[in-house]
Please model this.
Amino acid sequence: MPQMIGYDWTNLRADILGPGHGLTRAELEARREQARVAVGKFLDRVERGEVGFPRLPFQTEPVEQVAQYVRSLRGRYKSVLLLGIGGSALGPYALDVAANGPHPFRKKKIPAELVVVDNVDPLLLHRAMERLDPRKTLVVVVTKSGSTAETMAQFLIAYHWLRKKLGSKRAARQVAAVTDPSKGDLLAIARRKKFELFAIPPNVGGRFSVLTPVGLLPAALVGVNIRRLVQGAGDIAEACRLPELESNPALASALHQYILDTRYGKTIQVIYSYSNTLWALAFWYRQLWAESLGKRVDRSKREVLSGQTPVVALGVTDQHSQSQLYMEGPRDKAVTFWEEATSAHTVRIPKLFGKYDSTGYLGGKTLNELFRAEKSATELALTEAGRPNSTFLFPRADEYYVGQMMMLCMFQAAYAGELYDINAFDQPGVQLSKDLTYALLGRPGFDAERSRIATYRKQKESLEKK
Ligand code: PA5
Model:
């Protein structure tokens, strides 16, 4: 039996935090059936094929397709320019940072650098193209809808750049597209230009797509061991389907956060990553939790305004920036620590300046010990202050456990969706801002949005005149 990511939620309990601050045994017992029903309902959706992410680790074809393509390139590219946004960018970035190290503290040998352009601030693409060598750059354009304005604009610019520098034929060979297999303009363009094409299954939405070629392709190109990643995801998937809170960390943590939010006013979940390796993963999670659970209406169209706001913090850096607020500010937060049991490196602190109080006790210890002590100190201080906190413990922060964590978090978001009784898999708010952008820039077919914008502008102007 492979080792699993640990979930320690002792410090969420009222027994340790004090009455009124944490979860009681009685309320957890009372919710047991609700949790069991959530599992049943969600697995029915999976069975009906509505939601595809739980099955991804067991589909070998995408991994093989990606691996074969990457092999065929024989290390031809020094850079991978990833064009995408939201669920089409955060996963690959998290995988790159987890496997190759945070910027600028990168591994010495990486097959290619991943350059993620997930914004349309002109500076980014300008600088990217200034720095990158077009002959040594593979452009990977990722968009499920095949039409997001940011990604399509970046694609036009990057493709034009390649074509100008290398000519049409070669430019087309240096683009790989990841999109829906049956619809969208990117699909049509990719087919026309014969770009290398990878599919995102229709029943896997953006933020749940990291285990499709959305994450697998860029990750494999920059040397991430995608087989270990998928293996980790597959190994924990079984536990994530169990109906018992004790054996299913995704279900237990979903229920805990749900109760903390709806009964105890912990409307903010702070992901406190005591690991730079996992830092980008925390941003991936932030999107998953926010976009999946932040919903105006529930499944019966009743207004609920649901969702817990995810915030990311980095230990120990943010102990000197945020912890004061978490310990003494409003009681509206639940802290979730992410910690590595073993770091990939041990760094000794030399025994120097031993006669001074502030250096003597450090000499001979390791940075690893200091890191662990800081996390324990923060955990203890929060607990003493009656602030709920829990810990996900990664045996190691490598591909295997990142794969486990990604799967766990996706199940957690899905179960939380069932508990809130909302659709965790749509994003009408995101779609609205996409549609309004299309309308503002004159895309055909968005007349309703255009008249909405005109009304808004008139209203605003008349208020400004008053
Ligand atoms: O999770 C989601 O569905 C969104 O965040 C999308 O990933 C994001 O809006 C980008 O969409 P697309 O991949 O269609 O370009």
User: Anything to note?
Assistant: The longest strand covers residues 333-340. The chain has a mean pLDDT of 97. The chain has 18 helices and twelve strands. Residues 85-88, 143-145, 148, 151, 205-207, 291, 427, 430 surround 5-phosphoarabinonic acid (CB under 6 Å).
